[in-house]
Design goal:
With 175 residues, the chain is an alpha+beta fold. It has two domains: 120 residues, no CATH class; 32 residues, no CATH class. The protein is built from four helices and eight strands, in the order βαβββββαββαα. β6, α2 and β7 form a beta-alpha-beta unit. The relative contact order is 0.15.
């Protein structure tokens, strides 16, 4: 969304309300119900402009441990100081990109920095619960559904010869 900051710059208002829908960038394995709802404001306090936004996004995906469906709402608070183009050098903008957005003329584009922040802030792994035990590595049954009967102890095949040797010694010792 391009915000016209002209009324703020001319001193006609001290605050601009922002409310719109933002199309999120697609992510692997994640589907979105709709666009992100973005609300917030742009305020001017004696020439010091501050952008404060909140984005909420409904999503669907799979648990990274047990593959169960996961639904949720991702919420992001986005705050930046608005600076006029040419005030900061390119190097300063690169170093302080998480603190500033750049005003070009009387227009402020909030979509790109907000999309980037949504992408960086979104969880890299979804979990159905923090203590999700995952799947049985042998049969694939979700562990939260109970014991599947698979043997838990597994011997490394490289050491199977040693086990056979010790089992043989145990048998000879008991005879």
């Amino acid at each position: 969304m391009i915000v016209d900051v002209g009324p703020l710059l001319r001193g006609e208002v001290k605050r601009l309300v922002i409310d719109y829908m933002l199309s999120p960038q697609q992510m692997d394995g994640i589907t979105f119900d709709s666009d992100a709802r973005v609300t917030g404001c742009l305020t001017d306090n004696a020439g010091y402009m501050r952008l404060s936004l909140k984005a909420e996004l409904n999503y669907h995906g799979e648990c990274a441990r047990c593959l169960a469906p996961v639904d949720g709402v991702f919420s992001l608070d986005f705050e930046r100081t608005v600076t006029v183009e040419g005030t900061l050098t390119e190097q300063q903008l690169d170093e302080l990109s998480d603190e500033y957005v750049v005003l070009s003329g009387s227009e402020l584009d909030v979509d790109e920095p907000l999309r980037e922040e949504l992408l960086l802030g979104f969880p890299s792994r979804l979990l159905c619960s923090e203590d999700c035990p995952g799947l049985c590595p042998h049969c694939g049954k979700p562990k939260r559904e109970g014991n599947c009967g698979c043997t838990v102890k597994e011997i490394d095949p490289r050491l199977a010869v040693l086990k056979a040797f010790f089992d043989k010694d145990d048998e000879e010792g008991s005879n």
